[in-house]
Amino acid sequence: MMKKSVVRDFNRYCAGELYSLYRDVYSTSEGMSGTLEDKYRDRVSFEEDITILQSLPGGIALAAGTAQKPDAYLTIRPRTQSRLRHTADLNMGVAQSARGKGFGEQLLRAGLKRATTSQELEIVYLMVRTDNEPAIRLYQKMEFETLTILSRDIKTTDAYYDGILMRKFVD
């Protein structure tokens, strides 16, 4: 882990820095199910979505890095349907230059600690490709359990990949 790494709420960084981090993660990670443009049509829609996430009861948006620049992000987005509000979806990514340095574990620990203290959240779900072994090891280390493997869940231009649905109880 880098020496001066800090975990902060998204609002401690400017939106442009966070959007650049997302762009790096989405353009260098094979494990994402889509492109950044699939998720956000532009920086404004990214900022709007983050504002919505932060307004949700139990919503968590954290970044790790230096005080000036985020190198990794984690979001835990509560589901809004009335009978699913106790559940949330986790999404995280690490900049290409920061991978393998402990940012993911640092963020996941902080995010799960925050989720555990949330009055709203009981279960956190995530999806990961079966070939993303470093991420799977991290999730298993943090006691996520595998619920199922989804065959041919992700399709790229030249191949199919299986996905793993995992969960962790945080109540």
Automatic annotation (TrEMBL):
Residues 5-171 form the N-acetyltransferase domain. The keyword Glycoprotein does not apply. GO terms for molecular function: acyltransferase activity, transferring groups other than amino-acyl groups. Keywords: Transferase. It comes from the Bacteria. The keyword Transferase applies. PROSITE patterns: GNAT. This is Ribosomal-protein-alanine N-acetyltransferase. It comes from Novipirellula herctigrandis. The lineage of its organism: Bacteria, Pseudomonadati, Planctomycetota, Planctomycetia, Pirellulales.
